[in-house]
Specification:
With 466 residues, the protein is an alpha+beta fold. The protein folds into 3 domains: 170 residues, Up-down Bundle (Multidrug efflux transporter AcrB transmembrane fold), CATH 1.20.1640; 184 residues, Multidrug efflux transporter AcrB pore domain (Alpha-Beta Plaits, 2-Layer Sandwich), CATH 3.30.70; 93 residues, 2-Layer Sandwich (Multidrug efflux transporter AcrB TolC docking domain, DN and DC subdomains). It is 49% helix and 19% strand. A hairpin with a 2-residue loop joins β13 and β14. The longest helix is centred in the C-terminal third of the chain and has 32 residues.
C-alpha cells in the first residue's frame, strides 16, 4: 500500500478544475458598454473590435451577436486557423487581444462567453460570489474582495457585478405636501412613468394594420428627459380633478443605482469574475480564500460556491458516491462468485495501487485533476480488479490441485503474467497518443489518458510482484 499512501500524500499538490481549457481554434469575447447605452452605440463598438480582429493573421472569420441580455452587450466570435499553423494558443491570443482592446474607451471586454444556461464554464474564468441581505455591506465587501483579487497572480481582468451602476432619475414624494394637494404616490408614479418610459403595454393605444396591431407609445424626447426643469413642470392629477406641477409635491434629482439586482436563495448576490492566466480554478480558489477580505467578511455576508468551483464540489461528491457504490457492488458480486468473504478483499487490494499510480502520474506530468481524470480513475477500477481476478482465480484452482499457498501464488504470477501484460500494453498503447497530445480536443482527454497510464503501470507490475 506504499503507492496508495504516496498518492494520498501528493494529492494535495494537484490543482483542481472542472474542465481543462481547450484550443478549439475559436476565440470568443464578451463586450459590455455602460448601462443606458443604445443599440447603435453598441454596434459602433462591435464594428471597431471587428476591424481590430480582422487585422490579425490568426483570424479567418468573425461573427458578432449584439443584444444578448441587454442592448449594451455583445458577443464576438473569431474563427482562427488550425493551432498547428499559428504560434499563439487560443488562450494566449484571447489574452493578448483583451489587453489591446481595453484601449477602446467606455467598454468592458473579457475573453470567453458568460454561461447563460447555468452550466459549467470553459475553464478560462473564475467566479467568486457572496450573499447578503444588506446591499450596502454586500457592495462594500464585494469591492474589497475585487480590489485584493486584482493583486492575485494568475487572475486578470477582474470584474465586479456589484460595481456596475447606471444613471437614474430619482423622484422622492413629499408626503405632507402631496396629501394637502390631494395627490397620491400612485399618481406621481404614473405621471413620471408615462413621461419617461411610456405607459405599460396593456394601456397603450393600438394602430390597426389589419393583420397586426402596432402599439403607440408617447413619451418625452431624450433631451426633455435629461432636463430637470421640464420634468418639474409635469402635471400630476389630484383627487379633486385638478392638477399640480410635479415640483410642488416631489423632489426630482439625478442619481445612480445598480444596473441589475441579482438574487440567490432570496438574498442579494454579488459576483466577482476573473480570467485565468496560467492557473487552474482550484489554484485560483485557494489563493482567493487566503485573502484577508474573504477571511473577514462582514456580518450578514457569506460566501457561496459559484462558477466552476461549484461544479467541482458537485463532481467530487458525485465521484465519491460512485466510487463507494462501485466498490460495494464489486465486493458483493465477487462474494457471490467466489463464495468467500476473504478472496474479494484480496482482489480489491489492488485498487489503491491503481489510484495511487494515477495520482502520481498526474503530479509528475503537472496535469490538473479534472473531470476527465476522474473518468480515468473509474476506468482503472475495473482494469485493476480484472487483473486480480485472473491471479486469485488461478491460485484457487492451483490450491485445489494440491499446491501449497506459496507455490500456487508463484505459479499464478508466472502463468497469468502474459494475458495480464497483453491487455495492459494494448490499453496503454491506445492511451499513449492521447497522453502525448496528438489529435483533436486533447486538452479534455489528456488527463484521462495520463491517469489511466499511471494506474496501469503501478497496478499491473505491483500486482504481479506483490
Amino acid at each position: 500500500f506504499l503507492v496508495g499512501a504516496v498518492g494520498s500524500a501528493v494529492v494535495t499538490k494537484l490543482s483542481f478544475e472542472f474542465m481543462s481549457a481547450g484550443d478549439e481554434s475559436r476565440a470568443a469575447f464578451q463586450v459590455e458598454l455602460p448601462p443606458g447605452s443604445t443599440l447603435r452605440q453598441t454596434d459602433a463598438v462591435v464594428q471597431r473590435v471587428t476591424r481590430v480582429l480582422e487585422e490579425r493573421p490568426e483570424v479567418t472569420s468573425i461573427y458578432a451577436s449584439i443584444g444578448g441580455q441587454d442592448v449594451n452587450q455583445a458577443n464576438i466570435y473569431a474563427d482562427m486557423v488550425p493551432k498547428g499553423d499559428r504560434e499563439l494558443s487560443q488562450q494566449a491570443f484571447s489574452r493578448e487581444m483583451v489587453d489591446e482592446l481595453k484601449a477602446i474607451p467606455g467598454i468592458r471586454i473579457r475573453a470567453g462567453i458568460a454561461q447563460q444556461g447555468g452550466g459549467p464554464g470553459d475553464g478560462t474564468s473564475y467566479t467568486f460570489s457572496i450573499l447578503g441581505d444588506d446591499p450596502v455591506a454586500l457592495t462594500a465587501a464585494a469591492r474589497a474582495v475585487e480590489q485584493e483579487m486584482r493583486g492575485v497572480p494568475g487572475l486578470a481582468n477582474v470584474v465586479n457585478s456589484a460595481a456596475i451602476a447606471r444613471p437614474e432619475l430619482l423622484v422622492r414624494p413629499r408626503a405632507d405636501e402631496a396629501a394637502l394637494a390631494g395627490v397620491s404616490t400612485g399618481a406621481i408614479s404614473q405621471a413620471v412613468r408615462v413621461a419617461t418610459i411610456g405607459d405599460i403595454d396593456q394601456n397603450l393605444p393600438k394602430y390597426n394594420l389589419g393583420d397586426r396591431q402596432v402599439p403607440i407609445r408617447l413619451q418625452l424626447t431624450e433631451e426633455a428627459r435629461q432636463d430637470l426643469s421640464v420634468l418639474q413642470t409635469l402635471q400630476v392629477p389630484t383627487a379633486a380633478g385638478g392638477s399640480v406641477p410635479l415640483s410642488a409635491v416631489a423632489d426630482i434629482t439625478f442619481g445612480g443605482g445598480p444596473a441589475t439586482v441579482s438574487r440567490q436563495d432570496r438574498s442579494r448576490v454579488a459576483s466577482i469574475t476573473a480570467e485565468l492566466d496560467g492557473i487552474a480554478t482550484g489554484a485560483a480558489g485557494t489563493a482567493v480564500q487566503n485573502l484577508p477580505s474573504v477571511k473577514n467578511l462582514p456580518a450578514g455576508v457569506r460566501q457561496v460556491p459559484a462558477g466552476d468551483a461549484e461544479f467541482i464540489q458537485e463532481m467530487i461528491m458525485g465521484f465519491a458516491m460512485a466510487f463507494i457504490s462501485g466498490i460495494l457492488l464489486m465486493y458483493a458480486v465477487l462474494v457471490l462468485l467466489f463464495k468467500s468473504f476473504a478472496y474479494p478483499v484480496t482482489i480489491m487490494a489492488a485498487l489503491p495501487l491503481a489510484v495511487g499510480g494515477a495520482i502520481i502520474a498526474l503530479v509528475i506530468s503537472s496535469t490538473n485533476f479534472s473531470m476527465s481524470a476522474l473518468i480515468g480513475v473509474l476506468m482503472l477500477m475495473g482494469i485493476a480488479a480484472k487483473n486480480s481476478i485472473l491471479l486469485v482465480d488461478y491460485v484457487i484452482i492451483a490450491e485445489q490441485g494440491g499446491m501449497s499457498r506459496f507455490e500456487a501464488i508463484m505459479d499464478a504470477a508466472h502463468k497469468r503474467a502474459r494475458p495480464i501484460l497483453m491487455t495492459t500494453f494494448a490499453m496503454g498503447a491506445g492511451m499513449v497518443p492521447i497522453a502525448i497530445g496528438w489529435g483533436a480536443d486533447v486538452e479534455f482527454r489528456s488527463p484521462m489518458a495520463i491517469a489511466v497510464l499511471g494506474g496501469l503501470i503501478s497496478s499491473t507490475f505491483l500486482s504481479l510482484l506483490y
